Amino acid sequence: MMNHLLLRLFGVVLISCCTGPQLRGAELAPQRPAASASTQEHCLSTRCGTLPRTADTLRILGVGNSFTDDGMMYLPELLQAAGIGQVILGRLYYPGCSLEQHCRFYDEGATNYIYYKSTDNKWVTVNEHATLTEALEDDRWDIVVLQQASHFSGRYETYDPWLEELIGIVLSHNSNPDLCLAWQMTWAYAQDSDHGGFAAYGNDQQRMYQSILHAVQHLQRDYDLQVLIPTGTAIQNIRGTLLTHRDATRDGYHLDLGTGRYTAACTWFEALIAPILGGRIPDDGFLIPHEDAETTPVHEAEAVACRMAAAAAVRVPFAVSPATR
Questions:
Q1: Which residues is 292 bridged to in the sheet?
Q2: Pairing of strands 123-130, 113-118
Q3: Which of 126, 143, 254 is nearest to 195 (CA)?
Q4: pLDDT digits (tens, 9 = 90+) for 131-190
Q5: Whole-prediction pTM value?
Q6: How many helices (H) and strands (E) does the chain have?
Q7: What does the alpha-carbon distance between residue 89 and residue 64 come to, in Å, rounded to a whole number?
Q8: CA nearest neighbour of 271 among 125, 143, 96
Q9: Domains of the chain: residue spans and CATH
């Protein structure tokens, strides 16, 4: 495992491990630039596993899919409510993208992603045809957050060799020797979900949740990615606390546009932002009062419950905490 990561860091293209659809003509996969010596030394000794101690401006990039969108969507509103302006956010989105697919897209130079960015607590679309390289090199990121596709999240055999491949890609395009790699733990589907991937877990929410926990624990042992955003546990916490639409989802797997996404954003805030910049989200700072088929409203009482569910998950990421309303 370590030898393979070393090859990535020195820019060797392992076409046999990460080839996509047939390349046109005699085109070859792009060469990966070597990481700097300081980056190599840092990441091989610490595996980029700690949050920055301080930051005048904190830069966070999420590399993922619609579950990354669900986790990050309301972060600008929470930052605004907490009076925090010095956070730059990036979001790289392709629907259902797995670790393997990220690697294949990279080797193809695919322009399949939509790249969003927030520099003043407001999301804007940077490029609707972005590459992974563009997002990685767009800023001097302090934290890069990775995740597996939701249907594979509890199947650890799908992580190998792609997580190691993707870590190597991130490090080879990183200009920050103090980069922190973080992991978003995704959530189990609603009990009535009709997602095709749910069958791998016997169409059972608890089985899927436990499988995700075991996969993340395995990941942390193998890669020492200790900075965790335990969104999956936060969602299980809120499911046991509030009555929500379809277990806090809008379709059985994507989070609902009220309590689901609010809880997820609070989890990102508690895991990544509060430990570095401090700050607290006021009870009435950001609310979602409307209700529809995809939205469980967030009034002050619900906002408090969501924040408590998130904070409890950050404290105890591998077990559901009792309802605390």
A1: 295
A2: antiparallel
A3: 254
A4: 999 999 999 999 999 999 999 999 999 999 999 999 999 999 998 999 999 999 999 999
A5: 0.87
A6: 12, 7
A7: 14
A8: 143
A9: 35-315 (3.40.50.1110)
